[in-house]
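In the lab's daily routine, each protein ends up as an entry in a very long ledger. A line of letters takes care of the sequence, but it says nothing directly about the fold. The three-dimensional part falls to structure tokens, numbers that each stand for a local backbone shape. The outcome of that step, for a single protein, is printed below.
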Amino acid sequence: MTHLQEELFKLQDTVYRNFHSSLMPGVDKEAVIGVRTPVLRAFAKKFSKTEEAEQFMTELPHKYYEENNLHMMLIGQIKGYDECISELEKFLPYIDNWATCDSPLPKCFDKNKEDVLEWAKNWIATDATYVKRYGMGVMMRLFLDEDFKEEYIQLVASVKSEEYYVNMMIAWYMATALAKQWDAAIPYIQERKLSEWVHRKSIQKAVESYRITPEQKEYLKGLR
């Protein structure tokens, strides 16, 4: 066991481990240490200042789920945009679960949206499940507000996949689009442009959202 792994095991919460591992059916329970996110985040802030952190980011793949999350947290702390993208490109192919994939986006993305958009398009076009999901997550988080264009919905809605975690992200994106850009998103539901499973899941997630009005929810229920 490496020194880092020993430090992570000192932070272990076995009750949390049992609970959280049950939410990730594709991840071996033995690969989950059981470190709560706020605890790991605090650890990451201190760890990022060490020489060990730099070495850790070159040692891929990692053994434990928490090591993957730590890696994403370290990338998120990189202030230089080019370096951040470089490190992200190296790491994305190693992501093997939805929770690591859905980590908060690096803050430097906010000031480089034009370039981030091109990267997101490339990630969505890949065959790797979690790289594709990450790209769609970027579109959902950064490009459904003031930077929104109608063509962005088509970018995500046109994705066809047999992968559960890809389809779940499409549904999550569509539900969020319905909440933020109703007029642009609703035709995709009205005209049943999505696969049947994604169509129904999008409606379900939208109906469960507090950001959708009661009137909109009733209308969506009629489109199931």
Q: What stands out?
A: The mean pLDDT is 96. The two ends are 51 Å apart (CA to CA).
